[in-house]
Design a protein that fits this description.
Distance between the termini: 52 Å
CATH architecture of the largest domain: 3-Layer(aba) Sandwich
Strand content: 5-15%
CATH class of the largest domain: Alpha Beta
Number of domains: 2
Number of helices: 13
Largest sheet: 7 strands, mixed
Mean pLDDT: 94
Number of strands: 12
Structural class: alpha/beta
Low-confidence stretches: none
Order of helices and strands: HEHHEHEHEHEHEHEEHHHHEHEEE
Shape: globular
Length: 370
């Protein structure tokens, strides 16, 4: 029996088990570029294009014009022969925007998170991770554990006392606290000022994933670290560009030594073909537009407040959200799927979020405003 046949049998068994739980996933092809790709859709609450730049004509035209000067593909890893000048231009402009010393552009947020964590783990560091951090941060710490056992500590979500206790009892010299700034499934914010103070007290390195805050918070839109007034030179930020930035890839920003370290030790950077120069040039061309999009940020804030008020009047549970990500918590998978289908029949797209993405008993509709 060929290996493909054997693994085909094993795969079918695994997929049957997933299907029996009602959790078999499939891809849904978009029929058009907007409104969820569905002509019958009146409202799309599924995507993360929070500032609506993905469908903005002027934004897209600037990106297209900039892309004419560059190839669509990098052609090689950046260390071998794919180091196009546009990467350095983007990284420099991005650091000027968020106040960091240096930035490095990666192919995706997942690659950036995993690479950063595995590099920092090589300093025999203890990691302290919020319980609701994104899968890519968790996977990075799992990989790190193979070289540093018992180095991963989970603190209760946004629980500063629990984190302080863990930091106090750590025997390691190097400590890394990892959090999202805005949590992707609950829509609540990390207490960044207090986390920063704790990190200073225990000489820990603070790593903040700005995925769902970048473009949306701060006077110039560089994220919640700007909104809360954190010193950009005292922390590391991960800045994925596939949401409010309306592009793809991610930049890690921090001290100048970090960029050099990632180039020399980051396997996810070293052994990957560079991100598309087209996308990099489009990002660079539109950074100023995003920085000046205060009217769009204000509109999003007002829209979010209005929806939360409406849900409160209806007696519906949206947890502790204070942002444009609003979870309509329904508890069971059956209720969540039923609500998804009922809304779809009325032209509203909202996806049911189920385990393992969220804990058992907390299934929800994730309402993503824009």
């Amino acid at each position: 029996m060929p290996g493909t046949a054997l693994f085909g049998e094993l795969a079918r068994e695994k997929l049957k088990a997933i299907e029996a739980q009602g959790r078999l996933r499939s891809l849904r092809t978009l029929a058009s570029a907007s409104l969820g790709g569905n002509a019958a859709c009146a409202m799309d609450l599924t995507h993360n294009d929070y500032l609506n730049f993905r469908d903005d004509f002027a934004f897209q035209e600037r990106a297209r014009a900039a892309a004419r000067d560059w190839p669509i593909g990098a052609g090689a890893s950046r260390l071998l022969g794919g180091e196009h000048r546009i990467y350095a231009e983007l990284e420099s402009a991005f650091s000027q925007w968020n106040g960091s010393e240096a930035s490095l552009y990666f192919t995706s947020g997942y690659a950036a998170n995993e690479t950063l964590i595995t590099v920092l783990a090589q300093f025999d560091a203890d990691f302290f991770s919020d319980a609701l951090n994104h899968a890519s941060l968790i996977d990075g710490m799992r990989l790190a554990r193979s070289s540093s056992r018992d180095s991963k500590h989970i603190f209760r979500h946004n629980d500063l006392d629990h984190l302080a206790h863990q930091l106090k009892t750590s025997k390691k010299r190097a400590k890394v606290v990892v959090t999202e700034s805005l949590f992707s499934m609950d829509g609540d914010k990390a207490p960044l000022r207090e986390l920063s103070a704790l990190c200073q007290e225990f000489e820990a390195l603070l790593v903040v994933d700005e995925a769902h805050a970048l473009g949306v918070y701060g006077q110039t839109g560089s994220g919640l670290t700007e909104e809360f007034g954190l010193d950009p030179k005292s922390l590391i930020t991960i800045n994925p560009c596939g949401k409010a930035m309306a592009a793809s890839g991610a930049l890690i920003s921090g001290p100048a030594w970090l960029r050099t370290l990632l180039i020399n030790m980051g396997r996810g950077f070293i052994y990957s073909t560079g991100a598309s120069p087209w996308v990099a040039s489009g990002l660079r061309a539109n950074l100023d537009t995003i920085a000046k999009a205060g009217d769009r940020r204000s509109h999003l804030t007002a829209l979010s407040h209005e929806l939360r008020e409406g849900l409160t009047l209806l007696g519906l549970d949206y947890g502790t959200s204070k942002s444009h990500i609003i979870p309509l918590i329904l508890g069971s998978e059956a209720r969540s799927l039923k609500a998804e289908h009922a809304l779809a029949e009325r032209g509203i797209l909202a996806r049911a979020i189920r385990p393992p993405t969220v804990p058992e008993g907390s299934c929800r509709l994730r309402l993503s405003l824009h």
